Amino acid sequence: MIFLMTPAIRSAVFYVGSTLFCSLLGKIVVTRFFFDYPIVILMLQMATTLFIIELLRVIGVLKLSPYSFDKGRHFFLPSILFCIAQWLTLSAFEGIGMPAFDSVKRVTPVIILCASSAISRQSRLNNAQLIGVIGVSLGSLLTVNLELSLDRYSLFYGLMAATLQAVAYMQFEMLSRTYQAVELLYVNSFNSLIFFLVADVVQDEIRDAFMYMLTSAHPSFGGVLAILLLSGILIQFVTFLCLEHNGALRTQILSNIRAAVQV
């Protein structure tokens, strides 16, 4: 039955399902196995994505032109913004330093709607749409954080991640008019890998992560991490596919619904 749906509905269903699975798996890796190295996790995801795409491209399964600096330049801003938003989100999984981070991030749809209206130079927002978006954002915020407790770090970094992700999604939506989802995935993964490699020079997580794997890793950790890395490819592809068919606002609304359901 699902294959009879429109591409927009199909991509939305896959997006909610894959993000729900990957979010739960990411929390397991960070909170249960105590592998609290977000840059390393994201770096490995991007490296795995690039390896598989390049392999499929070389053997002729995917018809893609190789990465170029011209493409990388067009993707530079959204890739960097999305990387920082992902890093902040993964860093907040532990929940100790920023317990209300995820609830604050639920305001992202409102930011996207206001920014889209400002860019299109509309004199005023559609009241029905604005009320609906605020309702979804507020509902998911309250569902994620029933105690209504906010701390300054969660508020600051949550709003930062929400703003960065909103701008990145809007930029990727514009790029999706020129590039297919698999091209968005390919170029963004290349840019992101470079960013995380540079970020590790500052954070120096690779050495600590390597020592963790040698000395403290649980026997089942390798299998769970491998599943997370492979599922990370799926979630990135489905995200770009959903942006292509549904746009930035609807994609983020779906993310809010997923967060509410996950609780």
UniProtKB/TrEMBL annotation:
Read off the InterPro entries from this record.
Answer: TPT_transporter
Top-level taxon of the source organism: Eukaryota
TM spans (from-to): 12-30, 37-56, 76-96, 154-172, 184-202, 222-243
| Cellular component per GO, a single term | membrane
* Annotated keywords: Membrane, Transmembrane, Transmembrane helix
Protein's cellular compartments: Membrane
Keyword set includes Nuclease:
no
Q: What is this protein called?
A: TPT domain-containing protein
Does this UniProt record's set of keywords contain Metal-binding? no
- Leader peptide range in chain numbering: none
**Topological category with respect to the lipid bilayer:** Multi-pass membrane protein
